[in-house]
């Protein structure tokens, strides 16, 4: 039986979302945001020279049809890219009213979000008093710290020392539908932090807050504080069975690489492998060698978004794209004749744009395993339908296969 691999390059959008004018960074609408095209343009203009130099080099993705996918989405072009597509290529648009991780991933898996997400205001304090009192009570602390919109790295710089002294958890949010709680792995305890987030999650989910995220860190006031890789997302469960459930119900093995298990609350997933993106690619290669016939593998590479998009680091984003592209040959070497490998994204995060939020964009859909094929503009849910078609399992969503 054929296998399928869906690989999400987190936030690698390609512009052209038809409703971008309805989504904002601050007071600026996302109209015109284009993560890939603008990074390529910055590289061509010599504005992305930190740790790399020259035009953006992503020959493997470009050969599949990446630049052609950008052209499908918008009038923007990516300088120095433009190979004749040898793979499947097109661009997908989202209908869920969010530009966030759960919305994008669920819809790619066949299930658009049927509700409006809850958010916390960009005020101080951001969280209601009863939520702060419950947070302190659940972990046995005398209070909480921060209670604001903040950068995850800046907030531990600002409150880390006070946290170590008081034992109070650091609570912050962003423009996403999230509550994030940072705590020191040694002074507060990793298990205690995870338990706090798990216990708090049902209350936040009832408010349609998408995720409670545990953000552990280590270090000290003298040498500085650093976040660890022990992050855990406690996400609201998808509102209906997703592609993962469809595959599992059909008796197929479902592998998750990266934070997919968290995003889907482990529904329909058999096995999870986590780590930094470098480690995740090793895991993905291992899965490619080991995955059972007829299986589905869902992978997320988050550092495009978390390390470079939100920090508006154009050079870093370009470096990561080039690193990721160089690894793709490792997958092709391990692919079996009937494998389908699709590369896509869940939203945009244009590092040349204003603010630090995600950007509403279409996302590229480029694929290996079915030859050169132009699919044009499709819907996120069509990705799920197409994978179900390839795996010869029932598609239970509204999408249509582009295969």
Q: What's this, in brief?
A:
The chain is of the alpha/beta class and 403 residues long. 36% of the residues lie in helices and 20% in strands.
List the helices and strands and how they pair.
Blueprint: E1 4-9, E2 24-25, E3 28-29, H1 35-44, H2 59-64, H3 66-73, E4 88-93, H4 101-108, H5 129-139, E5 145-149, H6 152-166, E6 170-173, E7 178-184, H7 185-206, E8 211-220, E9 224-227, E10 232-235, H8 243-249, E11 254-257, H9 260-263, E12 271-273, H10 277-290, E13 296-301, H11 303-309, H12 314-334, E14 340-344, E15 363-368, E16 373-379, H13 380-391
Parallel strand pairs: 1-13, 1-14, 4-16, 5-6, 7-8, 11-12, 11-13
Antiparallel strand pairs: 2-3, 4-15, 6-7, 8-9, 8-10, 14-15
Which keywords apply here?
403 residues, alpha/beta, eight-stranded mixed beta sheet, six-stranded mixed beta sheet, 16 strands, 36% helix
Folded structure, characterized:
- The chain has 403 residues and is of the alpha/beta class.
- It is built from 13 helices and 16 strands.
- The protein has helices spanning 35-44, 59-64, 66-73, 101-108, 129-139, 152-166, 185-206, 243-249, 260-263, 277-290, 303-309, 314-334, 380-391; strands at residues 4-9, 24-25, 28-29, 88-93, 145-149, 170-173, 178-184, 211-220, 224-227, 232-235, 254-257, 271-273, 296-301, 340-344, 363-368, 373-379.
- Strands 12-11-13-1-14-15-4-16 form an 8-stranded mixed beta sheet, sandwiched between helices. Strands 5, 6, 7, 8, 9 and 10 form a 6-stranded mixed beta sheet that branches.
- The protein is globular.
- The mean pLDDT is 97.
């Amino acid at each position: 039986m054929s296998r399928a691999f869906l690989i999400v390059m987190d936030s690698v959008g390609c512009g052209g979302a038809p409703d971008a004018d309805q989504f904002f960074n601050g007071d600026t609408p996302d109209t015109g945001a284009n993560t890939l095209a603008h990074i390529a343009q910055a590289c061509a203009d010599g504005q992305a020279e930190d740790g790399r130099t020259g035009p953006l080099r992503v020959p493997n993705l470009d050969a599949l049809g990446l630049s052609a996918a950008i052209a499908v989405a918008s009038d923007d072009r990516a300088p120095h890219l433009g190979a004749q597509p040898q793979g499947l290529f097109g661009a997908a648009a989202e209908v869920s009213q969010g530009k966030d991780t759960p919305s994008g991933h669920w819809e790619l898996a066949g299930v658009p979000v049927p509700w409006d997400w809850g958010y916390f205001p960009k005020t101080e304090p951001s969280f209601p008093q009863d939520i702060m009192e419950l947070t302190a009570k659940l972990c046995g602390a005398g209070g909480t710290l921060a209670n604001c919109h903040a950068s995850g790295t800046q907030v531990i710089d600002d409150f880390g020392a006070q946290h170590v002294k008081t034992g109070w958890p650091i609570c912050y949010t962003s423009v996403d539908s999230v509550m994030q709680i940072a705590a020191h792995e040694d002074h507060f305890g990793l298990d205690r932090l995870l338990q706090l987030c798990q216990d708090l999650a049902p209350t936040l989910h009832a408010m349609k807050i998408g995720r409670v995220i545990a953000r552990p860190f280590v270090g000290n006031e003298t040498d500085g504080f650093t976040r660890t890789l022990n992050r855990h997302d406690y996400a609201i469960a998808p509102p209906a069975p997703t592609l993962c459930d469809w595959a599992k119900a059909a008796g197929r093995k479902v592998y998750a690489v990266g934070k997919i298990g968290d995003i889907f609350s482990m529904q329909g997933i058999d096995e999870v492998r986590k780590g930094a993106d470098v480690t995740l690619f090793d895991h993905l290669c291992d899965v490619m060698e080991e995955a059972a016939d007829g299986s589905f593998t869902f992978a997320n590479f988050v550092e495009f978004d978390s390390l470079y998009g939100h920090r508006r680091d154009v050079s870093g984003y370009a470096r990561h794209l080039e690193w990721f592209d160089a690894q793709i040959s490792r997958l092709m070497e391990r692919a079996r004749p009937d494998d389908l490998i699709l590369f896509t994204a869940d939203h945009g995060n244009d590092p040349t744009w204003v603010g630090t939020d995600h950007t509403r964009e279409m996302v590229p859909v480029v694929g290996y395993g079915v030859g050169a094929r132009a699919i044009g503009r499709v819907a996120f849910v069509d990705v799920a339908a197409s994978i179900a078609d390839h795996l010869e399992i029932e598609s239970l969503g509204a999408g249509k296969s582009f295969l």
